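task queued by scheduler; priority normal; single chain, no ligands, no partner chains; default sampling; output format set to structure tokens
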Amino acid sequence: MKHLLPILSFLVLTLNLKAQTAPPQAFNYSGVARNASNNPIANQTIGVQLSILKGSAVTGTVVYKENHFTNTDALGLFNLAVGTGAVQNGNFSTIDWSNDTYYLRVGLDATGGTNFVTMGSTQLLSVPYALYAKSSGTTISTTDHDTSSTNELQTLSVRKDTIFLTNGGFVKVPLSSYDHDTSSSNELQTLSIRNDTIFLTNGGFVKLPAGTTGSSKPTVTTSSATSITSTTATLQGNVTNDGGEIILTRGLCLSTAPNPTISNLLMTTSGYLGTYNFNASNLNPGTQYYLRAFATNTNGTSYGNQVSFTTISTCFQQEDKLYGYYGGAINYLSGGGIDSISIDNNDSVDISNTIYSDCILNYLNDRFSGANYTNISLPSGGTSFTTPNQTVSNIYLNRSNNESYIQNPTVNITCQNITTNQFSIIINIVSGTFKTTNSYYISKGYNNKNFAGAKFSGIYTK
């Protein structure tokens, strides 16, 4: 059984150091997907279901549930924003974090589907504080009401694996609390700052209490679909600008109607700037799809340009069964203005094919009619096909003599009821003249009869 070993996301334990009037309705979750051998499930699309339970990790009420479809990195790591997935149940924005204890339950489908296996539950010991403040009605003004330029400054300090601010707030460095080697530098990380956020090179960040200016929604583009088959396609999005804020989630929206939104969510993935790919499967053959990439930060969600693509139609369903040498008895069926005639002849059909999914039958030869075809176009779907019309030499009805034949005929051939070892055949006479020296047929007025519309049939076995 595939299983998941969750690791702790920095954002889960990180507080906004200054309350915001409209905090983002999400918090981050990171995990490492591993298989039964404890090896990372690397560079693979997985399905993750996140549920928030109230009161108990096992029997608690599910107040919110969402699905994510995301890609792992080379170490099996994935990052999600809880509250931004495809909602299955509940409303994230209405959770009253002050009312009870809450637990996060994680389900995983390592194949990228929706057959989620529960990996376990963990208590949210640190409630997302901005969300808690919002639900409790507490607001703090973000306007500076004094003339001091220094009284909001705070000092950073480090103790073991944690960076602290003097007025509260901290971030844990993603290393062991204890140094197990003699190196004095291999745990060092570089601090960088963008707008109101300090970042660590190995992950984790903390938002500073100063407001930001000039931030906006992300900028996203959508690439054209590639490697399109009847049921699959490779899709790509690209976040070219984060708008000066952290990217909470990014992904792709797919629909058979124009302008898909996150209500048509196809997948989400971790990461910030740059491209991301997804191998879509289980698409419908011969269907036009509309695709838009998206990304979300604290300012909202932006969509990329819309692109469309059409999956390839399903080819002839029985093409993979059509090959080999077939034989059977041929009989007059009806038509041509003749009641009945006797045929002393057998027929054989030779079929060759090299690619069984291209809707092209490479070669078909019918001995009775003398029709010979190459590269016949087969219909999309369906269970039978008819060859184009072909003018052939005289068709003789008897092996022992040439007393009856069809002069200068034009024919086509219908193949149907195709199985692995046999099919039925109808030879259709489009035009031609029935010729005979048989006295009975002459007495019936068959000689020189316009034979158009006559049909011959048989069941042929490989």
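post-processing summary
- Residues 231 and 370 are 39 Å apart (CA to CA).
- The longest helix spans residues 129-136.
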